[in-house]
Amino acid sequence: MKAAGLREMEALEGQRRADVLRPEDSVEAIPELRAAAAALSIETHPVEFGLANHDLAGLLLEGSAETEIIEEAARAAARALLVFDPQELPDLFAGASERLGQAQWRAGRRGDAQRTFAQTAGALGSVQRHGLQARLLASAARLLGGEAGGRNAGSVGRAIDAFDAAIEAARRVESRALLASLLNDSGRLIASNEEADGTPPADAALARFDEAAALVDDNDLGAALPVHGNRAAAYGLRKTGDRDANLREAIASYQRAVHLPGLQAHPADAARLYRALGTAWAQRPGGDRVENLQQADGALESAIERSSDDVHRDERASMWNERGLANAELAQRGIPGAVSATVTAFREGLAAVSGGEASELEAQLANNLGSAIMTAAGQGQAASLAEAATALDRAAELWTSLGRPVDAGASYLNAGLVYMTLHSAEREAVHLDQAIERLQRASAARPLGTHPGPHAAAQFNLGMALAIRAGGTRATDLAASVAAFRTALRVWTGPSAPPQAAVAHANLGSMLFGMAKQNDPELLREAAYHYEQALMVYTPATNPQQHQVISSNLALVRRWQRAGED
């Protein structure tokens, strides 16, 4: 008896040491609790016996996931339940029950775990301990929910039923915090899985997110942040109802989230929310479009400012790209400063992109930067056309390596236009050669048979560049220019033809007339036709100077035709 008493006293001392060790070094506390649980007698020290096993189970569940350790935790929790009564010690009873169920679940004994949760929750309910019952049911529901994610409708349905039981218990005790958490978690599960009855997941989840948002305490950042974020995302993804109304709700939730007390201490979360807010503003179809875009730009700016230095470079580059797209649309609407802001955003994004292997993001940024600089130059703003050409060449190279010839063709076309502009400004022959080479690639990348409109645009500009290089004397370039204009005009016919068609007709008429100086009647006839087509656009009222020049040329062609007939 004396030896047994000594062992129990040592066990109690070890239990006290474990209590001291547990907050700072749980690993060192485990042997002390093991020894205490083994030495204490349930008959002489029932509470201490129960506490030692209760605490041991909790510490074991925090550590290793090995089956042997998990099973040891289950046995310890089961021993604790031999002592703790749901009526006299309900908190400890609920804690031991939760740990037993978790251990059984992690050991793969799903049926045992569900029975443990059901039986112990029922015991708590029978003694009117509904708050603890709700907590226990919530733990069971979350285990089922984690298992159900991405699985079949049956497993999702069982998890939702478990959440509903926990929600009902939380309502009985008016536990707002627990209820909000359960509504949020169950809503997220519904939103991530297709509904068996065909109800859109976002719609089925929204009722829960709406109620959770009304219940949650915004001063509790850990609880409020996921609730408002999930509600906003669900409205943003909603495919039913009015799109603008849905996005207004998403924006309202994101704005509530970014102003939560204490969020400034979590810059990564703030950056994520501000970016989502910016995307929602940019997508909104209603309201003042300029205001929407400016709000989007401001939110994205806030996201970039809050992004830490170790954030993935492509994520930062993507945010700059989104800012550039918003400012590009503002520039189209004539907002002062938007053009330069567009160039800056795409330049920053391209500088931030990770590089290395070719990526769609880098190709987009390079193409967007080149196009933005072209726009700036076209408006007379300071702009480096050499930078634009380099960016567009890089975009075309990236698109080609990614197996995206159509996108490469668009970049090649813009690069060709930049090199033509450079030739006009600097009179360097190499720029004209570079323009022709890019425009030939643009034509090849988007063939006439599959992409008639883009092919015609490339051929028109190729015809212009070749005509400049021909200078009226280089027969090869002259013939190639005529062929390019003819190809473009095969597409540009009728009232839907773009304004460039008239330019092509006028140029082609002049080139054919020059080639027909040897009295070739077919070339003269074709030249006359193209001049006539051009005059349908260049009228005395709209373009008096061009009308006069083309009319004079047509008259000369007619004279040559008559001379040939004589």
Q: What do these coordinates show?
A:
The chain is mainly alpha-helical and 566 residues long. It is built from 25 helices and no strands. α7 (130-148) packs antiparallel against α8 and α16 (338-352) packs antiparallel against α17. It is elongated, with a radius of gyration of 37 Å. It starts with a helix and ends with a helix.
Layout of secondary structure:
Elements: H1 2-21, H2 26-39, H3 46-62, H4 67-81, H5 90-106, H6 110-126, H7 130-148, H8 153-172, H9 176-191, H10 201-215, H11 221-237, H12 243-258, H13 267-283, H14 289-306, H15 313-332, H16 338-352, H17 360-378, H18 385-401, H19 405-426, H20 429-445, H21 452-470, H22 475-491, H23 500-515, H24 521-535, H25 544-565
Largest sheet: none
Helix/strand structural class: mainly alpha
Secondary structure: helix percent: over 70%
Based on Cα principal axes, name the global outline.
elongated
Q: Whole-number average pLDDT?
A: 87
Order of helices and strands: HHHHHHHHHHHHHHHHHHHHHHHHH
Q: Compute the gyration radius: what is it?
A: 37 Å
Number of strands: 0
